[in-house]
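To assess whether the prediction recovers the assembly geometry, we first specified each molecular entity separately, as shown.
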Amino acid sequence: MSESTDQAHIGVVGLAVMGSNLARNFARNGNTVAVYNRSPERTRALIQDHGEEGNFIPSESIEDFVASLERPRKAIIMVQAGAATDAVIEQLADAMDDGDIIIDGGNALYTDTIRREKEMAQRNRHFVGAGISGGEEGALNGPSIMPGGPAESWKTLGPILESIAAVVDGVPCVTHIGPDGAGHFVKMVHNGIEYADMQVIGEAYQLLRYGAGMEPAEIAAVFQEWNSGDLDSYLIEITAEVLGTTDPDTGKPLVDVILDAAGQKGTGRWTAISGLDFGIPITAIAEAVFARALSSSADQRSAAQEGDLPAGTAVDFEALGISREEFIEDVRRALYASKLIAYSQGFDLIKAGSDEHNWNVDPRDLATIWRGGCIIRAKFLDRIREAYDTNPQLPALILDPYFKHELADLIDPWRRVVIAATQLGLPAPVFASSLSYYDSLRASRLPAALVQGQRDFFGAHTFKRVDKEGTYHIEWSADRSITKMD
Ligand code: NBP
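The predicted structure of the complete assembly is given in tokenized form:
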């Protein structure tokens, strides 16, 4: 074991999978790291198994841990989100002094981060909510880090976080996102986009598997090929790996022995709720969350299957009259188009959150720091950065000239795939709802006019007119005359 007698540059509290990997990453990059875990066994295991990787200062009490940190003290909390995080913040704040920095690297709800930052500021402690993406592998080898909190803390924290972050084209995947909850908000939306990205890949798989009748190994090869083009990304890469894997027990494709029920309790759900709170139609993310919820509705699903719900006249693939190769390419383009919508909506939500809280989040920063380390890392993010470089006030990502040009090539295949999915009787909720979102955005008239008429009819909610200023109400139950209300 290599233990430094000097004080630590940074400390990590919570040494489960994420915290211990993050501590090792700090140590491997030349930082002396103080480590502490509530149960001392984890601290001892870390030092025993990995102590030789760098300079660690282990402690078995929070007071010793804090005393081992150089000033201003910097401690990252990597414990379970919620009450555990609050408990550790209190312990650290009690043991620390003015100007020390407490960083929450867990997946906290951004409103909790805003509250905690306020509470800590009253005690002269700096509090930084930092989103950390990349799972356990990223924590060890280079995550994408999204710190919020006071700009002043970033000056102290920046270099040390840059020393462990993923690096793309010489640029570390970390930057100060904005004040208080900005980092955790952005991390939450990142995860929401991740849900949508995974779901569109799932829908593409479903269509190739049960529409075109391809085997998982064949589809793995298709995904591998897609990974060299516009869709080049970590998620496409690992999809090919998963689909290409065989279950050692049964010899069947692994994907066929995994229960088709996905969890959705965390950040994806929070993103969907935020979309509703801010009135931002993040349909792709919400559909992805609901698709997971539906997959886990075991009782309803089995009752629906046993209940022989009518399928209609589902068409078989041959009857659609398109070649398998054409269909595969159409599915690739539908996936690309739907993914573009998911990102466009995610960036809309970030803008809404940033405007509401005066965070001044720069979308170019996100497109830069998400290029490496995190789960949604992709070539595509370079294009997003270029789009916001060209026009930082872009009203929607899909209105960027490059993406508009791409959409011209994607739109017909996208429509064909949604039609095919419907005709085949295969669910494609994000492909279909993203296309509806796209068509809604470009429609010159929406049925909202009729909805306003209905609302005025039953609730006197009033309406505005296209041809005159003012607010109007119709005397529906009398002579249907129109009254100008203001
Ligand atoms: P867990 O979320 O499983 O939390 C386990 C850690 O929390 C242990 O160190 C445990 O200490 C500690 N802890 C608990 Br539980 N209650 C505590 C309390 N009251 N006081 C002090 N410590 C307490 O760990 P993880 O999976 O490493 O994740 C850490 C954070 O990182 C979470 O917020 C998670 O959402 C986030 N995150 C995880 C991933 C991932 O891929 N796993 C990715 C990105 C972010 P003990 O050993 O004494 O029980």
